[in-house]
Amino acid sequence: KKNSGRNEDCDDIFQDAILLFYKQVKLGRFNPDHDIAGYIYSIGRNLWINKTKRDIKIVNGYSELKNIDPK
After folding, report:
1. What DSSP string describes the chain?
2. What residue spans of 27-35 are helical by DSSP H?
3. What is the model's pLDDT at position 56?
4. CA torsion 54→60→64→67, rounded to 10°?
5. Among residues 9, 34, 59, 62, which is most buried (max CB within 10 A)?
């Protein structure tokens, strides 16, 4: 939420992070020597970074389209 997020965004990112963690465990890609909380935090952080990059591209794409002359 400190990075311009809403409660709904936080919930979605957390849920996606848990699902990705579960998939990593099922595929045997999680090293049990690692801290689970830190691992899930890292997944969530990366998901949030990717989401904000997508949102910026959408906003920038819209603003560029807005300036096109319709003639």
Report:
1. -TTT--HHHHHHHHHHHHHHHHHHHHTT-S-TTS-HHHHHHHHHHHHHHHHHHHHHHHHHHHHHHHTS---
2. none
3. 77
4. 140
5. 9
What is residue 28's DSSP assignment?
Answer: T
Q: Where are the beta strands (DSSP E) in the chain?
A: none
Residue 59 has pLDDT above 70, yes or no: no
Other beta carbons less than 10 A from residue 44's beta carbon: 19
Task: Characterize 11-36 residue by residue with b for buried, 16 or more Cβ atoms within 10 angstroms of its Cβ, and e for exposed.
Answer: eebeeebeebbeeeeeeeeeeeeeee
